[in-house]
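Teaching soon. Got one?

===
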Amino acid sequence: AKDIHKNIRGLKNAPVCGEHANEVLEMGSYKKISSTKYVTDKQITDHYAIIPTGQGFGAWNSLSQTARKVYEIIVRRFLAVFYPPAVYQKLTLTISMTPSGEDRKEYFFAGFKVLSDEGYLKIMQYSFSASANKTSGEDNNREDGDNEIKCDQEFLKKLSGLKKGTVISCMSLALKEGETSPPKRYNSGSMILAMENAGQLIEDDDLRAQIKGSGIGTSATRAGILTKLFHIKYLALNKKTQIITPTLQGELIYDVVYHSIASLLDPRLTASWEKGLTGVAGGTISREEYTEKMDGFVTRHTNRVKELNNQWVLRGCFDKAAQYYKK
């Protein structure tokens, strides 16, 4: 964190965003970076941060257009960290209407917001793609997931002039029909995020907090875990769309584990093991106590599986799954 100003100073000479790097240096916002979530000098572990060095610009002309675009994305995202948050002005509108010939009211609600201080969005204007710029939050005609409609300052000023009890004319009414979409299939990127955040659905606060810092695998091993699952044909990867789907073999493996040691499929088990390891590291429980519990778990479930006679259950699982796969 103490040396990050060197990277920023080098970016002053970059073919892109040089003026923004200079602005960051003038603001001095980099001096407080050590107290933010973006860096920590206390942990030296595997990570996937990409930081521009601010060097090597002599090779810029030899780069492909794709390489230049990637570099610009990284530089802008890096420098955006040193800018303040974007500030939006919000306004909520409640309208009541009395249907003709009826003695009741119908209520309609709308939320509006307009960008009053662009903050870090100032630097998120990519030079190479109009569609990329829309991701920065400047598309003011788009409706957000929180049902707030972005609008311009002029329209917001008119809305702000309304007061409680103001009567306005209804020019038209329309009913918008739609349907919910099924969850998107996992791809090679979203699956890694799901592994990283495997404990989000755990209700127990302590266990959820415990797995939050670990998840399934680490940032250095999750891609390798997926690669192995593809190699042993438990999962299938569409190389064109990067969509991940289970194989018939993978589904059967899941069914075998579910009908023998179902707890192995529960992220709460991983969380409890991680909590135990943290306890050993912190000295709240002994290594022997933790090992004894692990040995007990393995022995107990191994003996239980050896006594199972559930072939008929597994045959039913196979027949149910096989109908969705080509022979």
